[in-house]
Automatic annotation (TrEMBL):
GO terms for biological process: DNA repair; error-prone translesion synthesis; SOS response. It comes from Candidatus Roizmanbacteria bacterium RIFOXYD1_FULL_38_12. Pfam families: IMS, IMS_C, IMS_HHH. It comes from the Bacteria. The lineage of its organism: Bacteria, Candidatus Roizmaniibacteriota. Residues 11-190 form the UmuC domain. GO terms for molecular function: damaged DNA binding; DNA-directed DNA polymerase activity. This is UmuC domain-containing protein. One of its GO terms (cellular component) is cytosol. Belongs to the DNA polymerase type-Y family.
DNA sequence: TCTGGGGTCCTAGGACCC
DNA sequence: TCTGGGGTCCTAGGACCC
């Protein structure tokens, strides 16, 4: 059908097994070998150890259901700092084996191993085994590895045997291997597309790669044609070796557990999200041009709107009136809302932004001086003075506004 | 599965222009 | 009433990922 060499390229994919739960077990020996679930602070399962998965516990499950299925399950709080520490150590080890490492997510990475057999004096599979042993013995967690000729194939390989697996697919074995892979297991082919492909009698990854190029191009869009080529052993996706320093968008959302129709609470929540999103934007030195905000009703309908700013800004209180108008447009009284959220987009690097666009440079200069102070002192910008729980229980009614700063008090 | 939070990229279609 | 082509920019929304 299609013939390729054994190793035109060599990509290794590493995937942590139930990463957050494994890290929790690694730092606390009492949790070893026991069913552990993270996410206690929200009451919803985030990561589930393999011991707990046996009881049928799934992501998103609530505490009460979990306890019913697995009474001796241990529910622990999330600790993202700890996870990123382990992530760092994981990638440090990976870099000892190859200079080309992509940090795909906190617990997943791709390595380019091409041409490294002779410097390491070993074959690819042996290299994989060595990497695996080193990580498992140093970090006390298990990982699954896949080695193949493209990223897509390496990803399928690492998923094939979990936990603690090592699967190698060389160019000569692709076809045999893909016969065992249901189409929905392919990276990038989700629920919608796999349902569509099944209607076309394509049930496995092998069925997919058996189609002609013309067939795939005429029935599917570009990203799927790329996946098709990757599965046939043609490298399309390069490794992304750069650290993430740029964003297309930044979003903040939160679902609160008793839904509410209280206008003040919703407005305060939303402002807090907008403020948080802008804090992140400032960290990356972005000016913001668009603010998208939404309220999600209890029946999962979105009430959303968007503001496009004439003058891009880094400070939400400068656009407070626009924000409030937008909120009033989407808020409907007597509707129960469960989630508020915002996404800021059209992010422009500050240095490249034309200064002239900002009308009051003097004001902006002052604002820049005072803002770091506000951030470090955690001066209230909506809700942060109050405990989240208190607000949810309505013991405290938050003041739903960004206070205006009295800039005359600031000496420049 | 009665459904959390943070992202990315692609496509279709309308507006507008020549 | 019928009758053209093509380009660009923007937005909404879909689909997918961890």
């Amino acid at each position: 059908m299609f013939q390729i060499r054994s190793w035109p390229e060599t990509i290794l994919h590493v995937d942590g097994d139930a990463f957050f739960a494994s890290v929790a077990q690694a730092v606390d020996p009492r949790l070893k070998g026991k069913p552990v679930v993270t996410g206690q602070e929200r009451g919803i399962a985030t990561a589930i150890s393999y011991e707990a998965k046996k009881y049928g516990i799934k992501r998103g499950m609530r505490f009460v259901e979990m306890k019913k299925m697995c009474p001796n399950c241990i529910f622990v709080r999330s600790d993202y700092e700890l996870y990123s520490l382990y992530s760092h150590r994981l990638f440090e080890i990976l870099r000892q084996f190859s200079p080309s490492v992509e940090e795909y997510s906190i617990d997943e990475g791709f390595l380019d191993l091409k041409g490294l057999r002779s410097p390491h004096h070993m074959g690819y599979e042996e290299m994989g085994r060595k990497i695996k042993n080193m990580i498992e013995s140093n970090l006390g967690i298990t990982i699954s590895l896949g080695i193949s000729v493209t990223k897509s194939l390496a990803k399928i390989a690492s998923d094939f045997h979990k936990p603690s697996g090592l699967t190698v697919i060389d160019g000569k074995n692709i076809e045999t291997f893909l016969k065992k892979i249901p189409i929905q297991k392919v990276w990038g082919i989700g629920e919608q597309t796999s349902a569509y492909l099944r209607k076309l009698s394509i049930h496995t990854a092998f069925d997919f790669v058996s189609q002609s190029e013309e067939f795939v191009q005429s029935h599917l869009s570009k990203p799927f044609f790329e996946i098709y080529q990757e599965l046939r052993g043609k490298k399309i996706y390069e490794l992304n070796l750069e650290k993430k320093t740029t964003y297309q968008s930044i979003s903040k959302t939160q679902t609160f557990h008793p839904p509410t129709m209280d206008k003040d609470i919703l407005w305060a929540r939303l402002l807090a999200h907008i403020e948080d999103a802008f804090i992140k934007a400032r960290t990356y030195n972005y000016r913001v041009e668009k603010v998208h905000m939404f309220l999600k009703t209890q029946s999962f309908l979105y009430h959303a709107t968007e503001i496009k700013l004439k003058n891009q800004t880094q400070y939400p209180f400068l656009i407070r009136n626009e924000l409030e108008k937008a909120f009033n447009k989407i808020y409907h009284p007597h509707v129960l809302y469960r989630t508020t959220g915002c996404t800021i987009t059209n992010l422009k690097e500050d240095a490249n932004t034309q200064q002239g666009l900002f009308q009051n440079l003097h004001l902006e200069h002052k604002v820049k001086k005072i803002y770091p102070f506000i951030e470090t002192k955690k001066i209230d910008f909506g809700t942060s003075l109050f405990d989240k729980e208190e607000i949810q229980e309505k013991k405290v009614k938050p003041k739903p506004s960004i206070p205006f700063l009295d800039l005359s008090l600031i000496s420049t």
